[in-house]
Amino acid sequence: MEMRSRLNRFQLGALLAPGLILFGAFTVYPIARLLVVSFCDWNFGSMLRQQWIGLDNYREVLRDPTFRMVFVNSVVYTLVTVPGQMALGLIVAMLLSGVRRFSVTFRVINYLPVITSWVIASLVFRYIFNTEGLLNYFLTKVLGVTSQNVRWLDSRWGGLTVAMILGIWKGVGWNMVVFLAALQQVPQDLYEAAQIDGCGAWKKFWSVTMPSIRGTVLFALIMLTIGGFNVFTSIKMITGGKPAHQTDTLLTWMYYNAFSAGKFGYAAALSFIMALSLGLMAILQFKAMKNADG
Amino acid sequence: MRTLKNALAILLAAVLCLAGTALAESAQAPVTINFWHHYSAQSAENETLTNVLIPKFESENPGIKVNAVSHEWAELHDKILVSASSGSLPDVARCDIAWLPEFQKMGVLVSLDEAMPDFKDASGQLLDSAMSTASIGGHYYALALNTNSKILYYNTEMLKAAGVEVPGTLDEWVDAVTKLSGTNANGQQVWGWDEPALSGWNVCPFIWSFGGSLTSDDQTVATGYINSDATVKAVETFAKLAQGGKLTGFNSGDIPMTDGFGTGRYAMMLEGPWKVAELAGAYPDVAYGTAPIPAGDGGSVSVLGGEDIAMFNTLNQDAAWKFMQFMTGEYAETEMAKCGQIPVNKAALTSDTVKSASFAPYLEAIKTAKARPTVAAWSEMDNALTTEMTQVISGEKTAKQAMDELAATFDELLKK
Amino acid sequence: MKSKKGKWAALLRYLLLLLGAAVSALPMLYLVTTSLRPNGALYEYPPRFFPRPGALTIENYQYILAQSKFYRNFLNSAFVALTSVALAALVSSAMAFAMGKFRFRGRRLLFGFIILTMIIPGTTMIVPQFELATKLNLVNKLWGLIPFYAAWVIPFSTFMIKGFMENIPNEITEATWIDGASVMTVYLRIALPLAAPAIASVSIFDFLTAWEEYPWANTVINDTLLRTLPIAIAGFFGQHQFTQWGYVFAMSVLTLVPVVVVFVTCQRFFVQGLTAGSVKG
Fold it and tell me: Which one of B2, C227, C240, C253 is most buried, by most CB atoms within 10 A?
């Protein structure tokens, strides 16, 4: 619709203004401030004195061996949970799209983990994976798979594994819903054509389903990657970063630096490095999808 | 249109709620002071504070209301730092004595001997040794509230069953811990020793009793002290026990201290007087005894702990001061003594309640206990210590390597 | 005309779906059964999934509900979540309409910029946001949460609703427009009602976000009485020497109940809205 009068232009502005003001004040301004802080020396001690130190914070972050460890943790977490929950979500969606009875029940049950808060879900998993917990009992006494209790929460990879299992468990339902919607949009005649061509189920999947839902896959991929790097509450509740920050991910490490070590400048630089990495990944994913077009 | 109506309805409800809360807030008394502490929410101390002490204080001081907030120990420290940077500090807080140098350096504490005319009256009622923890650079920044130390707790049944005597020396201790570990009748693993964390509060008793130390006496240098042979030996012994499955408690998945000791999974531990009340409440059936920490080359040296009640430079200093005087007064100290908090009020210490609370073993331990370094950078040093200990136990570094690196880190931090 | 093979295939489908549903549901079931066990039984040996029939108790719930704090925390969470959602719904739908139905200079750039900020993880902004909250004197207040939550969900909400708005056939909006209606009239009379499902489902998302948010609330809120439910639950858990899982889980169940109820009753909206936005995207 084209603009006609000044009144209408004003009203349009009025529609945009509240959102932009709220967004600008509470999101954009902090981001800008974060950028500025990342170039300053701002620690608890130097509260009022914020000196411009250029890229020193960034240098300190990149040289920090803990940063590298934490970065690897985040990357591994994302690389495992994102494809994991997407694959499982897609499988469940495909299974569900073919059934009619109880489909709503299945959808609701599978979506329950998604609406459970991270705090609660993390605590439940912590309880289950506790060294003295139910899962270990199951593994040692019932299944007899191991003789000693597995110390899930006590090591770097053990703790991360629990977090990753939680991440996948919690995300499958969301993927299921998204893919269900996408699958319903695929024109049936494509399947029929493939059937006529003598395609088996596998070929049908790759030649018909996947290309048709490509847009949704990209959407989910980008959103989930951002989510993967955003993992915070589950790590905090499950291991708290212990032992010695080995189960920390980028965000929990940032939080520790900001609020326990008081190194605001360092934390800000870290945040931007994270954002840049995410941006890069999003662009790469976008490009990869575009190229898969052929 | 319906959506709009619904939206308006929600907004109206929200506004009403807001009005409600605003009304509730304005109906309060003129002065409210914020008191932050780390008595755990379900503890006897918090019960006493909320149901006995604060009501008494408020009835004696109409016009002052106390808003007490419980934070977990480490969180309290971080929250105070963050609040300092945003100008939203509480009025009064119960601080670990180890934090005072740090807070004082940030300039958020009030110099009480200068600001309060009746300071001498208040401090005169309290033990000199305890008040010394609040003295920095010739001025006093808090009133002593509690003092404590840790002694050995042992499960009598488990020691009898294993034929082990209560260890008196560190060698006997290593022996005992080893013999007491294994599996119990249910086939579950049991440990000879529980240590809930790897920070200074936990490892210092061992370091000192083995004859090691953290820094030089004037607290300026750490090299030669934190990486001395005695310290390294202490760390090695500790780590070997942990690696051998004889000592645990600091991992995320471990049974919490009280639960473990109460259910007979941990045979021995080092804890303070508050444990008595905790065990009586949660696990009244466990039979245990106490003893001083086993002696090594350095003697039987435990770690000196305690809390001071400090005032921040907010606007309610007079009301805050009254509350501080109340909390360090005879009545409050005696009440808290019932929960296992050793009082520093001279009058309270002579009362029957305190005498019957059998603080004797702890007071003995306090005589020889050492304090953790009283420097502003202690929190950071503590974190570094925990990290190094973790790496030694996980086998990433030898004790010597870790302590050498720690010495370098400490030297840096001590310079600040 | 289901062939034998078809019947087996269907059976297999249902079995797999059942397995999946079990995996999704089991942890939650365990949460509930544990909350019905007395606190002391939590280190019992051997650990059981279902408590012994005689050992079921509601004492954990009684304890939680007896504390007046809980109601306060619940109300705090409700107030914060509902207000944030209302605020977000209003401003996002307005922006979505403006950007979806009108062409103006810089529209693409503006929308792109808003979406781009989603790359920055919300938790990283805590430090400058805390500084801002201090300046605005919002620390330790519930209003220190609301505008931040609303601002956080604006990009996603606007994105979703805009997708829906763009799907509204132009003829419908054009009709009123040509008749001389103002922008506001088209918005209020036509676009909003039509976009209601999308707004509703986005609001459910936003509600969930605000209801369960932890890092920011933990930073801003100090007072016990102002705490929201996630902080209260984490607080119960945070004590080192004792872990009172019974209370923690009872409180968790009480926190989950409204969410589950809302979801189950509105789940149709949910799927619809999510569908519309994502497929377009």
Answer: C227
